[in-house]
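S.,

As promised, the LD2JLWAY run. Input:
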Amino acid sequence: MTKLSVNINKIATLRNARGANNPDVVKVALDAERFGAQGITVHPRPDERHIRHQDVYDLAQVVTTEFNIEGYPDKRFMDLVKEVKPAQATLVPDPPNAITSNTGWDTISNQGMLKDIVAELQESGIRVSIFINPEVRYFEPAKLTGTDRVELYTEPYAVGYPQNKEMAVKPYVEVAEIAKELGLGLNAGHDLDLHNLAFLKQSIPYLDEVSIGHALICDALYYGLENTIQMYRRQLEVL
Ligand SMILES: CC(=O)[C@@H](O)[C@H](O)COP(=O)(O)O
Ligand SMILES: NCC(=O)COP(=O)(O)O
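Predicted complex:
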């Protein structure tokens, strides 16, 4: 079964627009779980443009599905994650000023650093996932870091899908097979939506988790959050 982890960054974006507490990030997370989310994902960026440090502490108290915290493993992130101890930490190579995540790790040149960070997080009982591009050369080095999982960066798939979905998914199927052979758990995320999700799932049925935020929250503006989460869950139930 592929779990749906709902990324609520954009709920915090809306809340921050007025400086009060509407929408309430904690309430939305609890409702999302009640509506069928099998995980909650947040990405507390250094500038706190959406999810703030305090949100992470507040959510850790109440999330009952899998809590997944994404971010660049600087001291701020590591201290936060080791204190909060989520089910999973997803390491992303984003510079502080990145408008969004736009690439995976170079696990060749960063292998030593990643190996130490993975071990430090695993010592705290946290499952680790490494954000990765669908390039074969990065997968054996990723395995050597000791990471539990990799998360396939799926923006290139989403961009290519409308023109030629078979071509767009091809590199992902190839590296997914390698990940499986290496014994790596397999997540996927970024720019997945109601149009492209089912084909990714059909093409890689053994995905452990997809984390979806931007498109899902945009869809919820039209369909409502409960209906939207159910719509995304149904896309993952394709045989
Ligand atoms: C790592 C990734 O691809 C996304 O989870 C990221 O969290 C999106 O960040 P923004 O919501 O800040 O665009
Ligand atoms: N790891 C991907 C994620 O959490 C959400 O990415 P997006 O759906 O907001 O692009």
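Residues 126 and 215 are 28 Å apart (CA to CA). The two ends are 11 Å apart (CA to CA).

- D.
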